[in-house]
Write a structure and sequence with these properties.
By secondary structure, the chain is of the alpha/beta class. The protein is built from 12 helices and 8 strands. Helix 1 packs across helix 2, helix 9 packs antiparallel against helix 10 and helix 10 runs antiparallel to helix 12. The chain is globular.
């Protein structure tokens, strides 16, 4: 059974987009995935996103994706929302992934803008609608034009919000003005998908985060959120500013790369990367250590 949710927070408030752990020889590490998911929930996450970009979804098979969902649901499904990435740039394949995620026990779906093809807005509308029609699960849109090449325009978001199962948006557009209008007009639950903008997006109505840095600073993210919700803007700002070096360091290169490097240093499951992603260089590792130390994280 999925944890309790509300229309305002259908997937909880603090979610980490979890890496997919691999063994030393590159095989899916399901035991490690369960241990990492439990660690993240213990740290304060009330949601886990699996099979997203941070989960190296472009290089995991459909079977591996289903296995990840089953494993994480088994580990934390009664304590946290498990949201499964279930979207590619092929609508038919995305529908198959959505149905497989539902069968594996996911509590919700994350549907990213179709990438590379650069479809028009009508294509986006039909793509997301097809995914939402395919299962009985609630859907979080994922608007990230820096990766997809195409934004979900406000009018399209408003249209999609009419679908009864499209209930949220993960915003990595980096445009607070557009976010404000889309949030106000659509009524969707809004989640920050850009850690540097967590606090600014809260200020215009976001309800929570889908975070990468949540792998290492969930208690701080939770404290920032609770300070904001209680009206203590000064405390929320102080936490945000303290975390700036962490945000910067974790995204000097691709976030999966830095996250797995940090998890390895902390003795947590992560393992190697799959090409085309590669490990940090010695110089990059040293810089990451300095960045994290400046934000209060000691490796």
């Amino acid at each position: 059974m999925a944890p309790t949710s509300t229309p305002q927070t259908p997937f909880g408030r603090v979610l980490t987009a979890m890496v997919t752990p691999f063994t030393a020889d590159g095989i899916l590490d399901l035991d490690g995935a369960q241990r990492l998911a439990a660690h993240l929930v213990d740290a304060g996450n009330d949601g886990i996103v699996v099979n997203g970009t941070t989960g190296e979804s472009p290089t995991t098979s459909d079977a591996e994706k289903a296995d990840m969902v089953r494993a994480v649901v088994e580990a934390v499904g009664d304590r946290a929302h498990v949201v499964a990435g279930a979207s590619t740039n092929d609508t038919r394949h995305s529908v198959e992934l959505a149905r497989a995620a539902e069968a594996a026990g996911a509590h919700g779906l994350l549907a990213v803008t179709p990438y590379y093809s650069k479809p028009p807005q009508e294509g986006l509308f039909r793509h997301f609608s097809a995914i939402a029609d395919a299962t009985g699960l609630p859907v979080m849109l994922y608007d990230i034009p820096g990766r997809s090449g195409v934004p979900i325009n406000t009018e399209t978001i408003v249209r999609l919000a009419e679908h009864p199962r499209i209930v949220a948006n993960k915003d990595a557009k980096g445009d607070l003005g557009r976010a404000s209008w889309a949030l106000a007009r659509s009524g969707l639950a809004w989640y920050s998908g850009d850690d540097m903008l967590n606090l600014p997006l809260l200020s215009v109505g976001a309800v929570g985060f889908v975070s990468v840095v949540g792998h290492i600073v969930t208690p701080e993210l939770r404290a920032l959120l609770e300070a904001h919700l209680s009206g203590d803007v000064q405390k929320a700002t102080e936490i945000h500013q303290k975390l700036l070096p962490v945000f910067t360091g974790m995204f000097r290169t691709q976030g999966v790369i830095t996250t797995k490097a940090v998890l390895g240093r902390l003795g947590l499951p992560g393992g190697p990367l799959r090409l085309p992603l590669v490990e940090l260089s010695e110089e990059e590792t040293e810089q990451l250590g300095r960045d994290l130390a400046a934000g209060g994280v000691q490796l």
